[in-house]
Amino acid sequence: MRPTLLWSLLLLLGVFAAAAAAPPAPTVNGSWPTSCP
Known about the structure:
The protein is an all-alpha fold and 37 residues long. Helices cover 51% and strands 0% of the residues. The longest helix has 19 residues, at 3-21. The chain starts with a helix and ends in a 16-residue tail after the last helix.
């Protein structure tokens, strides 16, 4: 059991949750909400 894999999964889950909760639109230019309309 490697902590790196766990951290990666947690980070990915956190990013997905933030991307789904923060911006009004889901994903426009990928997974990272860089541009705000």
